[in-house]
């Protein structure tokens, strides 16, 4: 899952490490006197000072006395100015850092790798504003950062990427099971999205997921317009041994879900899972149905369902659905077939609502709780 994005993130990490370490090596050669500079700053004798003591002490003393009276002390004002103004590290700073066992990450080390990372994220269908946020966080975290020479730049990059990705992926997260546990019963969950993205199958999977955790559920077919919708959800209900509430084709979807809530309340069923017709956010009549369901039924959660493989299209639809009829979270189907990961990374940041589940196969057990921390670790191979 998301293998293409994993490869691109690994390439970025390797590029930064290679660039920074080459620059550090070059800096060490160019500042061969760096140790002497750092020692002079700390008031310690250098090797050259020690070598000078091999001659006559008196002659040395006379020479030093003459030098002190005729030669002004070297002016390091420029280096100090560079250090004080907060700009790029000066040669003096880099030499001092290297001599004390540290290496400074500079803008030049990040420029090309960050550009390549931006292209990689956009190619992976990560939404533009999300990609920019990731880049800004990585840049701010790493620029001017120093590391011990016994560490690797890759470790710094890995931590910066981890924090940047988690910041956008983890937006709005909440504990779904705790929400179900603590809510008044029955809990009503309505599913929405465009046609053909797996809403009905997702309902069946979530019913199985809830059952595995001790929660009973009833299915409600609010997709009253599509031919064959009743038969499709009835097949899932039979396989799962769940009760199904459905009306004749063309009926009022609000009435169907309302009846399901009444049934659940009368029979001590924990959760109502309500299907709705696939729609575009521009379908005024269908969007008005969602508004009516929200007004009459007052669902506890409205979940947007789309395909992970839809990438940028899924991100745009999530934004549009949330604007037209506010959703509480998202479920991404076909995540197992998605190599890019753009939708999974972008939707939460764009909508401010969390991705809650990933569909990862055809079986009823193939529904994975979305864990931002675990996903980031998987993407970075940690």
Structure commentary:
This protein is α/β, with parallel strands linked by helices. The protein folds into two domains: 91 residues, Up-down Bundle (Four Helix Bundle (Hemerythrin (Met), subunit A)), CATH 1.20.120.140; 196 residues, Rossmann fold, CATH 3.40.50. 56% of the residues lie in helices and 12% in strands. The strands form two sheets. It has an eight-stranded mixed β-sheet, sandwiched between helices.
CATH superfamily grouping of the largest domain: P-loop containing nucleotide triphosphate hydrolases
Find the structural class using helix and strand composition.
alpha/beta
- Strands side by side in the biggest sheet: 5-4-6-3-7-8-9-10
Residue runs with pLDDT of under 50 for 5 or more positions: 34-41, 46-53, 55-66, 68-74, 76-87, 91-101
- The tally of strands reads 10
Query: Between the first and last Cα atoms, what is the distance in angstroms?
Result: 15 Å
Topology as a string of helices (H) and strands (E): HHHHHHEHHEHHEHEHEHEHEHEHEEH
The average pLDDT is 78
The best one-word shape is: elongated
Please describe the biggest sheet, giving its number of strands, its sense, and whether it closes into a barrel: 8 strands, mixed
What count of structural domains? 2
Rg from alpha-carbon coordinates: 31 Å
CATH topology of the largest domain: Rossmann fold
Q: What proportion of the residues form beta strands (DSSP E)?
A: 5-15%
- Percent helix, as a range, is 55-70%
**Which architecture name of the largest domain does CATH use?**
3-Layer(aba) Sandwich
Helix count, DSSP H or I runs of 4 or more residues: 17
